[in-house]
Amino acid sequence: MNKTFLALLEEATFTKEILASGVTQIRNANYARKGLYFQSFTSLATGLERIGKLCLMLDYYIKTGGQFPDLKFVKNKIGHDLQIIYTKSKAVVCDYNIEFSFQNNIDGSLHQEILKILSAFAKGDRYSNINFLVTQTRESDPIYYWYTKVDKVLYEQRVSVKKKKTIEFNAEIIDKFMTPLAMVRHTSETRDEINLIKDASFATGMNESVAKYRQLYLLQIIRYWVELLWGLQSLSSKINHEDIPFFSEIFAIFYNEDKYLMTRKTFDKKQ
């Protein structure tokens, strides 16, 4: 195993692990555990950038006959913006006519909204609370944007009318029985106060109903780059197979149908 092989192997393994952690955490994040949003966003933004860069660096490797780009190229031509990295990846797909077993793009409005939120998080929104303390204004809030642009849309589009009625009914019943006995004090993802048991119950029910879908859309984004990486693995191995590890083995957990991706709750543990 040469140094190039080991560097690629370590990078791919690290990237797989942080992506697995991020998609596991996003399923559990809610108004009562907001820290999980930040943990998940950090892992996902970092992991998607790294797998996207791996793809673009392998593209360079193939086109130059076995050379990797220098630091200036990586900084200026690839950068950190996930939406730009995705746009460049689509050009790579066309250049090599790479075939996909699943989705050959992530152009859907929700996929793009997720990329936008994660990209903004990586570029500065992760410091939204610190920025507020310093400036006394809140120009951005990644959890707010996630809730309004992703979760609410998923709830409206993917959760059945029957399920929505059940969530509302349960909230009414729990409120009737628990209000004389208990109290609740929380803030929602939109920073509104939650001081009614009915509202807390509804928020919990809504979160649980969209959790598997929010995870699915993120896994579809990851799977897109995994499939692209596998296609580039084959092409780059023809140049020098001693340089290129089997990315197909490292990222195998993400190469699955939607049904499996939506039903599996944890991706950071071997099962």
Describe the structure.
The protein has eleven helices and two strands, in the order H-H-H-H-H-H-H-H-E-E-H-H-H. With 271 residues, it is mainly α. The chain has one domain (3-139, 211-263). A two-stranded antiparallel ribbon has the order 1-2. The radius of gyration is 21 Å and the shape is elongated.
User: Largest beta sheet, briefly?
Assistant: 2 strands, antiparallel
Kindly name the structural category: mainly alpha
Rg value: 21 Å
Task: Name the overall outline.
Answer: elongated
Strand order of the largest sheet: 1-2
Q: Level of helix content?
A: 55-70%
Number of domains: 1
Q: Per DSSP, what share of the residues sits in E-state strands of 2 or more residues? A: under 5%
H/E topology pattern: HHHHHHHHEEHHH
Number of strands: 2
Overall pLDDT confidence? 91
Low-confidence stretches: none
Distance between the termini: 29 Å
Number of helices: 11
